[in-house]
Amino acid sequence: MKKYGIIIVAVLFVFSMPFVFTNISENYKEPFNIIENPLPWIVLLVFIGILALLVWLVIEALMKIQQLEDEKNGLVATNIQNHTTFKTWIQGILHAWTKAKPIAQEGEIILDHNYDGIKELDNSLPPWWIYMFYATIVFAVVYLVRFEVLDGDNQITEYNKAVTAAKSSLKEYKATATDIIDISTVTLLTDQKDLNRGKAVYNLNCAACHMADGGGGIGPNLVDEYWVLGGGIKNVFATISNGGRDGKGMIAWKKTLKPKDIAKVSSYILSLQGKTPANPKKAEGELWKEESN
C-alpha cells in the first residue's frame, strides 16, 4: 500500500511539472540562468529524482510480476537470483548514499549511553547530507561573488527597476490604448459621432441640473467663459470624474460612467461654448482662458 501511495504521488508530481515550468518561464526573463534564477534548476533536479524513483518502482513491480509468473513455470531459481542481484545493487546504492548500518550490525555502533532503556547510535553523517552541506558552501561562494564582488542588484534595486519598467510600459500602453483615458491622456474630441454620444450622456445625466441647452439651473451655466473648477478638457474631465465642490457640488460620475463616455460628454459640454441658452444663469467662478502652448 505504501508503494502505491508513493507511485500516485510521483505520477501527480510528474504530470504537474509541465505546468510548473510553464509558470516559471512566464514569470522569469531568463528562467534557466542558473546564476540569476537557481530555483528552476532545483525544481528540475527534484523532478529528475522523483522520475527516477517512479521508474525504479515500476521496474520493481514488473520484476515482482515476472517472478510470480516464473514460479508457475518452474523458473524460480534463475529469476530470484536475477531479482536478488538487482535488489542488492539498489541496496548498495542506498548504502553508499546513506552509510547507514544494517539493523543486524547496529550493535557495533551503540554508544555507552542509556536513558531509561533508550540507547544512542553513533551513525556517520549521511553522504547526501554532507553533499548538501557542500552545495550550500558553493551557493554561498557564488552568492558572495555575485552580489558583493560583482556588485549585483539586490532585492530593493531589482524591485525599483521592475517598478520603473512597469510604469514605463503602462505609460506607453496608455498612450496607445483607446479604452484607457484619464486626466493626463484625455483630449478634446471633435468628431460628430463622439459629440452625439456625449450629448446623449449629457441629456440623460446632466440636463436635469444644467438644463438641456447648458444654461444652468441647480448647477452652473456651462456656456459662458466662467468656470468654478476650471475650464478646458482636462479640468472638465476631472470635475465630472471626481465631482464638484465638497458638500454642494455634483457627485463623482467616475463610479457610473466609463472614462471614454466622460471624455465625450466633456467634449460636448465644451462644444456649447458661445451659444445662447434660453434662460442663462448668472456666471459663477472665474474667467477661464485656455493657455496657449
Protein architecture, described:
It is a single chain. With 293 residues, the chain is mostly helical. The protein has helices spanning 2-27, 39-72, 76-98, 127-149, 155-176, 192-205, 207-210, 232-242, 259-271, and strands at residues 226-227, 286-287. Among the domains are: 2-98; 192-287, Cytochrome Bc1 Complex, Chain D, domain 2 (Orthogonal Bundle). Helix 2 runs antiparallel to helix 3 and helix 6 (192-205) crosses helix 9 (259-271). It starts with a helix and ends in a 6-residue tail after the last strand.
Summarize the structure.
The protein contains nine helices and two strands.
Low-confidence stretches: none
Q: On the 0-100 scale, what is the average pLDDT?
A: 77
Number of helical segments with 4 or more residues: 9
- In quaternary terms, these chains amount to single chain
- Report the radius of gyration as a whole number of Å: 38 Å
Task: Report, as a whole number of angstroms, the end-to-end distance.
Answer: 81 Å
Alpha-beta content class: mainly alpha
Q: What is the strand content?
A: under 5%
Order of strands, widest sheet = 1-2
Please give the number of β-strands. Answer: 2
Task: List the secondary-structure elements in sequence, H or E.
Answer: HHHHHHHEHHE
Shape: elongated
Residue share in helix: 55-70%
Biggest pleated sheet: 2 strands, antiparallel
